[in-house]
Amino acid sequence: MLNPNSRSLYTSALTPPPGMMFDEAVATTFSMDPALLLEAPVYLALMAADGQTDPDPLSVLEAIRRYSKRITVYVQRGRIQVPQIAKPNPLFGFLEEMVVEVTAPGGGVFHPKVWAIRFISPDQSSSMYRLVVLTRNMTTDQSWDLSLQLEGAIAGRKSKSNKPLAHFFKTLPDLATGPTESGRGEQALRFADELHRVQWELPDGFDELTFYLPGTKGFDWEPPMANRMAVISPFCSDEALRALTKKTKAADALISRPESLSALKKETLELFTQCLHLDDAAETEDGEEEDATEQPLATGLHAKVYLFETKYYSDYTHVIMGSANATNAALNASKNVEILVGLVGRKSKVGGIDELLGADGLGEYLVDFDTSKEAKIDALWQAAEESVERARSRIAETALSIECSPGSKDGLWALVLTGEIPSLDGIVSAIAWPITVTRDFAVDILNGDAHGRIGFGEFSASSVTGLIAFELKTNHPDVSARFVLNVPVAGVPEERNSAILQTVISNQEGFLRYLLLLLGDDKVSGLDPGSGSGFAKWLARLADGEDIPLLEELTRTYSRHPERLSEISGLVRDLSQGSQNAIIPEDFLNLWTVFESAIGGRDA
User: Fold this and answer.
1) Which residues pair with 277 in a beta bridge?
2) Residue 55 — very low, low, confident or very high, per pLDDT cuts 50/70/90?
3) Helix H or strand E segment including 490
């Protein structure tokens, strides 16, 4: 049921089922690492090409251009992480449209962790959905987490059990904190309609599936009256746990983090037969050091699951998992935006609490919490934490924007952050910089001019972005915060996307290779860009001065995949814009005029 030895990679959820291919996806998360989001399109491109080799910059570029229009991620405003990069990456600029920052209407936080992925058959005659309900965020955190993956086809009738899920996706556009592309909102509504009609295939042994939106009227979660209960939650509150224990005859186990257990009242802990946490030795197998060549092992606890055992003519196990911690804000106060999914199955088929706590479950990784140890509260640290989180929220709530205008030299653009930065009590340093450049370009945001304008400096067009990193420091040496806001930009240079392209496609060889990626009919042409050997042969022919069969490739694409020629038309336009280098070979430009005329004739 909850097998600690069954592990999966975050990106594996994107792998299409046999005979299907990726179409589009909507994801939600509390926090997000932009670098991890960049991996998703690249992974999809590799899967589509059956590629097993590491992608080069050109294939990364094409993957992001191809899939960024079809993936939307909703994230709590102020919780995008600052990417840990060794050098500037202009490709982050392509993420602006993919990321929609949101807030919870009840004054809490947007906390759900869900992927809804739509797959279609190659001929587009059929489609299906995969729903991945997670307890982890879209980050590289290595905590112990839990995920549920469901798949199903779209039926003709709406399913009553899917109504909360459909409502959740329908409301996503209304939570956005700023303007978004109309296509993103339309996508969420389209997903809501289709998810309402999906018939899910249940995991082995389970007979019932229910979705819950804690705190949302009509879709709230009410725990069942049970004989036994176990709770796994990294964060807990006394009030929420007391409410849960009133729903069961026996509260067998509370599994949490040591610091969370230490913060609970003694009488709350005594409501549970066992209070447990992960053994430090569980961070590496058998306490040994981790092999750097292996998949990183989990450390810490981030899973959230509630187990109940009930009896109605037979013994049943209820598994409720998702984003909600056992806290008042998540379960009782109607503040956070959360999502839970409940599964019910016969205990004889799916196991129960004893199996969870046994040697084949989490038992070998758990140790008893020492209730005799009093919580050590560092008042200075706690005050600093409160100050930095309060400052993060105040900046996130401020109406900020970026003004972009021509710089003092040709090819440079001046970026100015506008908006009145509020007073940040307890913060001794506050700086900001575009994430497409390094922290070396950071400027002080506490000393703007009288009109609330802060100049970032002048940058190349490829570095223009609204993704702005902020760093806040307190007097406490161990307390600081770094985060990114997706700030609207006015005056984005027309050649920005062209400039990003030109940073990657910097010569004729790069152009021709990228052209083959766009043509993409690799199995027929034998010029598979994902195959090192095939492309190496092609490059050898180029080096020997042989004619390249571009005419044949373009003609084949024109007849089989004419839509790809529109992408090539955009590529030619973008690489010609503002470029001082002859990136596009003149022979190709002469050839391309023929196909541009043909495209125009077909569209007429």
Assistant:
1) 367
2) low
3) strand 489-490
Q: From CA 390, how far away is CA 507, in angstroms rounded?
A: 48
377 Cβ partners below 8 Å, 6+ apart? none
C-alpha–C-alpha distance, residues 583 and 571, integer Å: 11
Residue predicted with more confidence, 244 or 64: 244
The residue extents of the domains of the chain are 10-201, 212-287+297-368, 379-494, 505-603
Give the architecture (CATH level 2) of 212-287+297-368.
2-Layer Sandwich (3.30)
62 touches 518 (CB < 8 A):
yes
pLDDT at 405: 96
CB contact at 8 A, 466 and 489: yes
**What is the largest distance, in Å, between two alpha-carbon atoms of the chain?**
83
What pLDDT does residue 208 have? 96
Q: Are 20 and 120 in contact (CB under 8 A)?
A: yes
Burial of 236 (0-12, 13-18, 19+ CB in 10 A): buried
Provide the total of helices (H) and of strands (E) in the chain, helices listed first: 18, 23
Fold of domain 10-201: Endonuclease; Chain A (3.30.870)
The CA–CA distances, whole Å, from 249 to 226, 244, 276, 452 equal 6, 11, 20, 59
Q: Which residues neighbour 205 within 8 Å (Cβ) at sequence distance 6 or greater? A: 1, 345, 346, 349, 350
Instruction: Report yes or no: 135 and 321 within 8 Å, Cβ to Cβ.
Output: yes
Given this model, what pLDDT does residue 298 score?
Answer: 47
Q: Are 214 and 109 in contact (CB under 8 A)?
A: no
Local structure of 16: helix, strand or coil: coil
pLDDT at 588 over 90: no
Q: How far apart are CA 433 and CA 469, in angstroms?
A: 5
pTM: predicted TM-score of the whole model, two decimal places: 0.86
According to DSSP, residue 172 is labeled: G
Quote the CA–CA distance of 137 and 83 in Å, as a whole number.
Answer: 15
**Domain 379-494 class?**
mainly beta
Q: Once rounded to an integer, what is the mean pLDDT over residues 542-568? A: 69
Task: Round the average pLDDT of the chain to a whole number and report it.
Answer: 84
Contacts with 585 (C-beta within 8 Å, 6 or more apart), sequence order:
508, 511, 512
Q: Minimal CA–CA distance to 262: which of 371, 361, 145?
A: 371
The confidence score (pLDDT) of residue 601 equals 52
* The two domains 10-201 and 379-494 share their CATH topology (first three levels equal): no
pLDDT of residue 36: 86
Mean pLDDT of 291-313: 72
Average pLDDT rounded to a whole number, residues 325-342: 91
Sorted by sequence, the CB contacts under 8 Å of residue 371 that are 6+ apart come out as: 266, 269, 275
If residue 73 lies in a helix (H) or strand (E), which one and from where to where? strand 71-76
369 Cβ contact partners less than 8 Å away, ≥ 6 residues apart: 258, 261, 269, 275, 276, 277
pLDDT at site 344: 97
Nearest to 602 by CA among 574, 568, 565, 551: 565
E strands along 96-193, which residues? Answer: 99-102, 114-120, 127-134, 147-154
